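Q: Start with the shorter request: fold the first protein.
A: Done. Sequence, then structure:
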Amino acid sequence: QVQLVESGGGLVQVGGSLRLSCAASGRTFSNSAMGWFRQTPGKEREFVATISRTGAVTNYADSVKGRFTISRDNAKNTVSLQMNSLKLEDTAVYYCAARINGGVTIRSMDYANWGQGTQVTVSS
């Protein structure tokens, strides 16, 4: 198992930037594909970005491609999401997720370990 704790959320204006971080505990982080998802009230959890165990492969939702960047540091057991050019529709609770011994995937059901989430609010 791996425990995940997100940080870095907050309030930002349209066009601004935020950097989310996810700290992982446990020995399985480097063997885990990692993902970021987001959710707004009344909607299903939505895929944002994923990164492979080595960081060599990444995948993004079309809605964030070119604006968001996922990265990881296996030495520090962290995965980050750099969010630029934020839009109102990026407002959501953002979750970090781990898929131990698995490859990148956009399906939330493939991730067994989740953080508690961090709120991102984009205002005009």
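Q: Next, the second protein, separately.
A: Sequence, then structure:
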Amino acid sequence: QLTLVESGGGLVQPGGSLTLSCAASGGAANYYVIGWFRQAPGKERERVVCISSSGGTTNWASSVEDRFTVSRDNSKNTVLLRMNSLKPEDTAVYYCAAGGLMSCKATEFPSWGQGTQVTVSS
């Protein structure tokens, strides 16, 4: 059973940075597409980015692709989401997910972490 655990969320001022980590255990996570998604209050869960199993291909949401970066270390079963120039509209619970496709639709991902809160506010 694949388990995903997110960490690194918190409160940050506009323009600041945070790095979220997604740690996978209990399954062959190295073979899976990993996705980061977010959900703000009253809104649907939306794509942030998906990264292929090798890390060589990504699929970004246009709202963040010039501010965020993603990387994965398959030797450590970890995917990092580096978020720069954060805006209040980035406030959401951020989730990592595994097992979906590079089309990066939340409904395609069977395994999810519990989420980590990111709040961007002065």
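Q: Describe the second briefly.
A: The two ends are 40 Å apart (CA to CA). The chain has a mean pLDDT of 96.
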